[in-house]
Q: What sequence folds into this?
């Protein structure tokens, strides 16, 4: 089974391909597109049209899910700029992987005091990842940006696991 | 008067098909209203009694007969619909009527020699609701929006759609109950903000968190339990009562079970009003009970169930990315929210007193009527954006489930995957679709097998079959497949694990149409025969009285004989009709009106038995 990439979310929304989207504006855009395209307001006569309306509406909903999440937005942007860039840059620096492994250990053994400290540390790391990503994208260095996305995945997962503990 | 909107050309009704009660509503103007017979209770009990004399009684009449025919009165089928017999075992054990498993392990309600699906029973309730609505509106109703618990999965939704179809309704939308309630609450824009709908009905519990903004009602997250409701509270009380009675089997047992159920329900309701309640139940030679229950005792027994609902509330808030303190308002739906403990616990958990302007019994139907009006094209200012309650996935190697569509995704939503073949010349691929949150296929619900057929024969791995999984606005999955190299559309055969196959729905529809046809034909035959007999009698009388020319007498005699012969031979109604017409022609030519007078008299006598 091979996942087929969804259509470019930025194109579906008709917005500029940038990481720094204005979120309230994006939400209003989503509501407007939904009003225009939702099957409830577009009763199709034939079953072919009906599927087309559903597909369009699904595209909008799915694009909204991508664009509203900064990391999913970043992945969509990189894929749109350079197809397959995420797959090509999966190999990460062994040093980073060692650190990630240690981090996972730390999360697994954190007590309630440690959890608070660790949450702060992870949030800072994720922020730093995104800042760096932004800089990479500005330089059109999509390969480095893709690596950054993969690295951030470890931080996000560690944070998620930490939250699941409490 | 100039403000009056133009009359709506298309009327679609909203139906709340509940576990215990059902009702319909319509939005004729701006505000929706429930449909009821003058002065009658708008709630129709979701009950069907199969009377031994062959009659099928639905609603209030059925409820009145439940003690007389406890094993022939069917209720709570919403707990069975779209589920397997094995899954519903525990529910079935508490029911006074017989439920057997079909060949495909689906629950079938057994009445004498008949085995009825839960869909067929729901269809009977829907037919009754439809008829009542038509009575109240004064015109026929064809289209409806039918509500289901938000937590219903694909199979339960599809089964509800099938029931509507069997009832002769075009189901424009399967709508989630809490979402419907939010529509009723948020209409008019006074309540824009974030709202939590807590819906504890007779058999199911749902919680949904919505954001309402300028007419757009967007569900952020939903959670629930399709097997938790007021019936469970009744059951806890019923168990206490049953312990005090001698145990009974068979029909006697069914009677006791039904009587105790009703008593328990009454006791529960009184405990919402007063601190303690006493039950005196006299079942004659089947036993007597006197039981006093305090509210504290009752609350202690239901507390674990109430806690389960609060866990769902927390999980919905988490999925919505919100803290409970960020919720602006709380809307209560369902009769069980009248229980003081439920309100108190919810208030303690959220720090907010629930909103009480919405009638918890009517809100869902009223909301359904609003959505019905939107779908009828009468209101473009409102829009509902709902979510899929449970993730959908596909079984991969090793029995794990690969998630394709995640829960709480706004619907419609879709995802595409590419598949290939493992063997040369392979022309078919089977996909097993699961719904649920667990990792392993055995812990999720197998919704069905999708069999892709008609893949062009090619070496293994060469076909590229693009399969699109699309969840529509009803929350029901649609799958399409195309082979990318040849562009050939693969056919998909769906074998649902639960509920009716397409073939079964088709057959049941044809049967119901055939039955209607048979009834019509039978009535027509009886009428044709009665008319012919009356004509023969009348003409014979007239002939005896009148003096006619011989040739005319002969012609009339001949026509009467021909008709009599057909009657003796039990001929088809068409033949009887044409022979009757021949006789009419012959007698009409006779100048003397004696004959026609006699015939008319005879026909009249016949109509006054």
A:
């Amino acid at each position: 089974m091979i996942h087929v990439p969804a259509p470019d979310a930025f194109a579906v929304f008709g917005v500029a391909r940038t990481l720094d989207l204005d979120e309230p504006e994006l939400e209003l855009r989503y509501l407007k597109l939904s009003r225009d395209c939702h099957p409830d307001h577009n009763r199709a006569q034939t079953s072919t049209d009906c599927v087309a309306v559903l597909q369009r509406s699904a595209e909008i909903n799915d694009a909204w899910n991508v664009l509203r999440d900064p990391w999913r937005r970043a992945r969509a942007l990189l894929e749109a700029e350079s197809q397959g860039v995420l797959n090509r840059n999966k190999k990460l620096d062994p040093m980073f992987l060692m650190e990630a492994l240690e981090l996972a250990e730390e999360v697994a053994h954190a007590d309630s005091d440690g959890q608070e400290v660790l949450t702060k540390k992870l949030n800072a790391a994720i922020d730093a990842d995104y800042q760096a990503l932004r800089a990479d994208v500005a330089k059109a260095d999509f390969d480095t940006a893709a690596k950054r996305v993969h690295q951030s995945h470890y931080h996000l997962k560690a944070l998620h696991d930490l939250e699941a503990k409490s | 008067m100039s403000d009056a909107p133009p009359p709506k050309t298309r009327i679609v009704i909203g139906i709340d098909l509940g576990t215990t009660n059902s009702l319909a509503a319509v939005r004729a103007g701006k505000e929706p209203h429930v449909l009821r017979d003058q002065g009658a209770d708008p709630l129709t009990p979701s009950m069907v009694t199969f009377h031994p004399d062959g009659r099928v009684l639905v609603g209030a009449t059925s409820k009145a007969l439940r003690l007389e025919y406890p094993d022939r009165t069917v209720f709570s089928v919403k707990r069975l619909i779209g589920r397997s017999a094995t899954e519903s075992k525990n529910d079935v054990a508490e029911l006074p009527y017989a439920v057997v498993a079909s060949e495909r392990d689906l629950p079938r309600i057994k009445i004498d020699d008949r085995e009825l699906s839960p869909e067929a029973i729901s269809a009977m309730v829907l037919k009754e609701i439809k008829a009542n609505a038509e009575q109240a509106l004064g015109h026929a109703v064809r289209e409806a929006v039918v509500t289901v618990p938000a937590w219903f999965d694909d199979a339960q939704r599809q089964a509800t759609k099938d029931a509507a179809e069997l009832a002769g309704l075009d189901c424009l939308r399967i709508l989630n109950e809490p979402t419907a309630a939010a529509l009723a609450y948020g209409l008019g824009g006074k309540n824009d903000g974030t709202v939590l709908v807590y819906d504890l009905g007779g058999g199911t519990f749902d919680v949904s968190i919505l954001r309402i903004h300028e007419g757009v009602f967007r569900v952020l997250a939903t959670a629930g339990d399709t097997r938790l409701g007021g019936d469970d509270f009744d059951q806890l009380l019923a168990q206490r009562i049953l312990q005090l009675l001698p145990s009974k089997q068979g029909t006697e047992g069914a009677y006791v079970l039904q009587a105790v159920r009703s008593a328990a329900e009454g006791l529960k309701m009184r405990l919402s009003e007063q601190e303690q309640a006493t039950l005196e139940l006299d079942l004659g030679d089947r036993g007597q009970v006197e039981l006093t229950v305090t509210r504290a005792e009752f609350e202690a027994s239901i507390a674990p169930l109430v806690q389960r609902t609060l866990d769902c509330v927390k999980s919905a808030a988490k999925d919505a990315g919100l803290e409970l303190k960020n919720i602006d308002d709380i809307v209560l739906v369902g009769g069980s929210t009248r229980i003081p403990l439920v309100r108190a616990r919810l208030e303690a958990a959220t720090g907010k007193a629930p909103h009480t302007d919405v009638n918890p019994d009517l809100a869902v139907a009223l909301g359904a009527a609003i959505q019905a009006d939107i779908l009828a094209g009468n209101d473009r200012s409102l829009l509902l954006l709902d979510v899929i309650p449970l993730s959908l996935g596909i079984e991969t190697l090793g029995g794990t489930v690969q998630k394709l569509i995640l829960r709480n995704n706004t619907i419609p939503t879709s995802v595409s995957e590419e598949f290939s073949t493992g063997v040369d010349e392979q022309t078919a691929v089977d996909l097993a679709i699961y719904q649920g949150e667990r990792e392993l296929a055995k812990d999720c619900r197998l919704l069905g097998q999708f069999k892709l057929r008609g893949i062009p024969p090619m070496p293994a791995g060469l076909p590229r079959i693009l399969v699109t999984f699309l969840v529509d606005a009803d929350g029901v999955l649609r799958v399409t497949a195309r082979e990318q190299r040849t562009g050939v559309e693969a056919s998909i055969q769906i074998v649902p694990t639960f509920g009716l196959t397409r073939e079964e729905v088709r057959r049941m529809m044809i049967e119901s149409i055939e039955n209607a046809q048979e009834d019509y034909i039978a009535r027509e035959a009886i009428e044709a025969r009665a008319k012919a007999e009356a004509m023969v009698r009348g003409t014979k009388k007239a002939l005896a009285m009148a003096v006619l020319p011989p040739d005319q007498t002969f012609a009339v005699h001949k026509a009467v004989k021909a008709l009599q012969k057909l009657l003796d031979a039990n001929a088809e109604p068409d033949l009887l009709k044409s022979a009757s017409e021949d006789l009419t022609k012959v007698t009409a030519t006779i100048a003397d009106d004696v004959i026609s007078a006699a015939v008319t008299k005879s026909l009249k006598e016949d109509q006054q038995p």
In short: Residues 231-299 of chain B form a domain with the Actin; Chain A, domain 4 fold (CATH 3.90.640.10). Chain B has a mean pLDDT of 86. The two ends of chain B are 53 Å apart (CA to CA).
